[in-house]
Design brief:
binds magnesium ion, two-stranded parallel sheet, three-stranded parallel β-sheet, binds adenosine-5'-triphosphate, 2 domains, Rossmann-like_a/b/a_fold, cytoplasm, Rossmann fold
């Protein structure tokens, strides 16, 4: 049997999934699922690096899994599971904390952004990238589909894996980032200098996958634009319109040049109105499928089977790691 390439990625159940998560990450998950042995995780342990309401967190885990399926992930093809159901993630996470250096973690921009202006932050927020490294390395993943904001964490994962392999002998596959040329960094609708995020306190900053049509129209009409009236792609001079053009292009499957041409001589109003309708049409089947899946009563069973498969895949790596490091009392692991 030919072994398929191992792929791993995850999304945090920290809020409603956005168009940024979809265009930058989720669409890639779907694209590679048939040609790879993919593990897609709901990374709940990452979510608690910032405060979460326990009841809401549990709901969001099921919401996110339902969305995974609604956008086209097939749980019989890909392994869908929850991070905390597979204890090996935490165990390897700790071991990798003892391989990573304070200095390299201090350079992580996600930590700087998420801790900026806060009176106190958790230790977990700081060590987040080592748990992410464990998630990926545990499955001997070759490819990791993510958005641009996770590129730095992926580089750190490779550094940690290389250091571990050099010190203890070949243990981990070095993973490569799988990132789109277009759509890897969708920006906020209210401020094109910030990336769109599901945990941004301002809901106007993002389109959520489950937003009803009228809310999408309203958010689009309020989305900021740039000073002149020209629909033209120029990320430096026209960051807001360029971001909308990227969203348009990916959602309508049209090139940016084609769209620029279509809106020559027209203003931002027409452009944004049309974009809203394109998004409504794109999201409609996903929302319908989501409602079916979320109410099907099948999600918990899918996650239980996913966790079982994930544990089987994860255990040999953790056993090898422990043997290499000299941990534990069982000599024959
Ligand atoms: P949070 O604000 O809680 O960190 P988030 O929107 O950044 O939420 P994550 O769960 O951290 O979402 O990331 C899930 C995946 O979505 C990652 O692969 C990440 O790179 C990708 N992603 C997040 N935001 C964007 C964006 N604006 N554009 C493209 N990809 C994105
Ligand atoms: Mg994030």
């Amino acid at each position: 049997m030919i072994q398929k390439t191992r792929v791993f990625s995850g999304i945090q159940p920290t809020g409603q999934i956005t168009l940024g998560n979809y265009l930058g990450a989720l669409k890639q998950f779907v694209n590679v699922q048939h040609t790879s042995d993919a593990f897609y995780c709901v990374v709940d342990l990452h979510a608690i690096t910032v405060p979460q309401d326990p009841k809401q967190l549990r709901e969001r885990i099921l919401d996110l899994t339902s969305l995974y399926i609604a956008v086209g992930l097939d749980p019989t093809q890909s392994t869908l599971f929850v991070q905390s159901d597979v204890a090996e993630h935490s165990e390897l996470g700790w071991i990798l904390q003892c391989v990573a250096h304070m200095g390299e973690l201090s350079r992580m921009t996600q930590y700087k952004e998420k801790s900026d202006g806060k009176d106190s932050v958790t230790v977990g927020l700081f060590t987040y990238p080592t748990l992410m490294a464990a998630d990926i390395l545990l499955y001997q993943s070759s490819f990791v589909p993510v958005g641009d904001d996770q590129k730095q964490h992926l580089e750190l994962t490779r550094d940690i894996a290389e250091r571990f392999n050099a010190r203890f002998g070949k243990t981990f596959t070095l993973p490569e980032v799988l990132m789109l040329k277009q759509g890897a960094r969708i920006m906020s609708l209210d401020d094109p200098s910030n990336k769109m995020s599901k945990s941004n306190p301002n809901p106007q900053s993002r389109i959520e996958m489950l937003d009803p049509p009228d809310l999408i129209r309203k958010k689009m009409s309020r989305a900021v634009t740039d000073s002149d009236r020209e629909v033209r792609y120029d990320p430096k001079l026209k960051p807001a319109v360029s971001n909308l053009l990227t969203i348009y292009s990916l959602s309508a499957n049209k090139s940016i040049e084609e769209i620029e041409h279509d809106y020559q001589g027209k203003g931002y109003g027409d452009f944004k109105k049309d974009l809203a309708e394109i998004l409504v049409a794109m999201l409609d089947p996903i929302q319908k499928r989501y409602a079916e899946v979320r109410n099907s009563g099948e999600i918990e069973g899918i996650l239980a089977r996913g966790a079982e498969r994930a544990r089987i895949a994860a255990k040999p790596t953790l056993d090898l790691v422990k043997r290499q490091v000299g941990l534990g009392s069982t000599q024959h692991l």
